Amino acid sequence: MSTPDTGNGAGTGATVPVAVRDASADMGSSSSSSSSSSSFLNLSHLADNPMFAGGIGLAGLGAAAALARRGVVSGAQVLRRRLLVNVEISRRDPSYPWVLAWLSLPRESQGFLASRLTRIHNLSVATATASATANASRHHHHDSGSAADGPTHASFFLQPGYGRHLIRHRAGVYIAVNREKQSSSNMTTGEPHETVTLTALWAHRHVFEEVFLEARALAARANEGKTAVYSVQGMGWGPLGEPRKKRPLGSVILDEGVKEAVVADVRDFLDRQQWYVDRGIPYRRGYLLYGPPGSGKTSFIQALAGELDYSLAMINLSEVGVTDDKLAMLLMNVPRRSILLLEDADAAFVNRRQRDPDGYSGGTVTFSGLLNALDGVAAGEERIAFLTTNHIDRLDPALIRPGRVDMMLRIGEATRYQAAQMWGRFYGDVDADGTGCARFLARLEELGLIEGPRPEDVPRRHTSTAAIQGLFLFNKSDMEGAIRMAEGLIPRQFEPETPGPEATIRTKA
Prior knowledge:
The protein is 40% helix and 21% strand.
């Protein structure tokens, strides 16, 4: 049949030319795309553009400068670590005020350039006041005036302020000082945290030992003849005002032999530290002084601290806020060379027995907390602790057992021996033959205030050494007046106050 052949022939002739035309179009499109891609990747014309070349050059120079700067900074840091040495002192460190006082010392600068470089332009002032009779003249501060200016002296200490300073320690040795105030502060006092950084050459690194030794010696000279007193401030210890003049041990008159026994025991304890270590015994000693108020318990402890050249760390157990954990931490961090004084030891037993209905006894120390702090697992060593109380009957036997309290002494009412010794201290210069002392003691016997013969109708009474001292202070230069007023030593009995008819308050003595 002709139709299929014609159809096949016609179909073949029609399809071949179409395929050839499509291939030619594809080849033209491919060659066009290739030429455009090669022209896009060709950067030769960009290199010929001066603006593009300048930008590339500047970017390269910037990158090279950044790398060079980083290299210089890194090299400087390496050199600083290798050639310099820094010592940072925090305000919470005990040496901080010593170093500031040492920095405030005047120094001579030799040479024109050295004197200009070591000038301190930023200064801060610390002011201290003292009584007009106190000797406030020291070589490193200026006194504001004489006793006629007022009842107190003001002493101004100039020291380097915040910022960077350069000081000359000695010939060829310079120390850079950087005093900074931190952004954080003490949560209790609100004072900002401060640091002082001392920087010196690595070759002069041993100079810091000289600095701290000189600063410590300067502080020791400033506190010579004084007793530092520490109290609880926040969660730690802080100085309670300025150091106080040492009280002579002889100025505290206790009954015969009592004072000597305590001093001998404390000295023996201090001399036997290795003895305790060799036998595995905790190196601590506890004393309990009990007796009526005004008998001289706290005064004796203060005088003992001065005699031993120790400071005094005081804790009032009845103070609200002294909890068990806080007490344990405080006793673990007692300032070195300090006598620990726990006043009102019976306050913990009040908390033990008197609680609220819900079981809460207030934010104060408890009985078990006191025992653990004194002789528990967390108890510290190298400690001399004195406890005082006016009510020994309130103390639990668990507290006064050996190990917690090693020596108990009653500091009681004034005796004949104490009255005679106190008379000699106040009037010994005007009563050389002792006749006035004999008349005073006889008068105390008549009143029944000391042991000895007395009228039958006079009951046995008691008085305190604080009352006798008050009598002598009232009659400083009048020996006869002290004898005449001896009747004022009789303890008074007060009745409850009741309003009178004229709406006044009258008290019968």
